[in-house]
Design a protein that fits this description.
Shape: globular
Distance between the termini: 35 Å
CATH architecture of the largest domain: Alpha Horseshoe
CATH superfamily of the largest domain: Tetratricopeptide repeat domain
Number of helices: 14
Radius of gyration: 21 Å
């Protein structure tokens, strides 16, 4: 971890980047797993503890308590759990030693300072999409068929080109569930929510699939769109995912608990 990352994280979340810098940052985030994981931790703590919006008095008190928590949960473990990373910026700081220590700090701090009801599901959904669906799996050494060309375009963020490949594939193979799913994801990546929902709904209505991702992706789209009534629609779809044990049902259970 380095301070350049922290500065970028803050500038991105505070909308202080130019359009070009923002695109460069998102490209780097998509390709660098370590940076993406650090960013997700950063956002989780900011979301739950409100560092960037806290008053000076609140921030000072928060930092003092975090130092104590760090002494108790992290520094005492640093000899056995690996290196300790110190993240410092002008507004806030936190320590973490491996994934376990980071989770301890987030959970303990959340209980002490927040306790403010349901999680921000819009942000949770966006983080999930950024971490898991910005890149699609591609078969190495496969022939350059429409599916692989579409996936390659998607992974390069050439979403309109990807849509053209997936649409062409569906014209030839209307029952191709992967093409249907990827077409919906291409629209979701462009924030074309209504179109994404059309394709995910078509996928959700399929009863010939061993594991149907449609209902989960519909719920994800509703949460990212975050318009009036979308939370309830997302809950309905997540409940279906759990009841039918569809793809993503374990995560659906977790998200439903966060909505209580």
């Amino acid at each position: 971890m380095n301070e350049i990352w922290i500065e970028k994280f803050e500038d991105y979340l505070q909308n202080r980047m130019s359009a070009r810098d923002k695109q460069d940052f998102e490209d780097q985030l998509a390709s660098d797993m370590e940076m993406r994981e650090a960013f997700n931790v950063f956002k989780a703590i900011e979301r739950d503890m409100g560092y960037l919006s806290a008053s000076r008095e609140e921030t000072a008190a928060l930092e003092e308590t975090l130092d104590k928590l760090s002494d108790k949960y992290i520094r005492s473990q640093s000899d056995t759990q690996g290196k300790t990373v110190f993240m410092l910026s002008k507004n806030w700081k936190f320590f973490y030693t491996g994934i376990a220590a980071a989770l301890v700090l987030i959970v303990v701090s959340y209980v002490v300072f927040v306790g403010k009801g349901p999680a921000n599901m819009n942000q949770t959904a966006e983080e999930y999409f950024a971490s898991n669906l910005l890149q699609l799996g591609q078969t190495m050494g496969s022939s350059q068929d429409s599916m692989q060309l579409g996936i390659a375009a998607y992974n390069k963020k050439e979403y309109s080109l990807a849509q053209a490949y997936f649409e062409g594939l569906l014209d030839q193979q209307p029952a191709n569930a992967e093409a249907l799913k990827n077409l919906g994801l291409s629209h979701l990546s462009k924030k074309e929510f209504d179109l994404a929902l059309i394709y995910f709904d078509q996928l959700a209505q399929r009863n010939d699939l061993m594991s149907n991702a449609g209902p989960f992706l519909k719920a994800l789209t509703f949460l990212i769109r975050d318009e009036p009534g979308d939370l309830e629609s997302a809950q309905t779809n997540l409940k279906r995912v759990v009841e039918q044990q569809y793809e993503g049902y374990e995560l659906a259970e977790e998200w439903l608990k966060g909505m209580d």
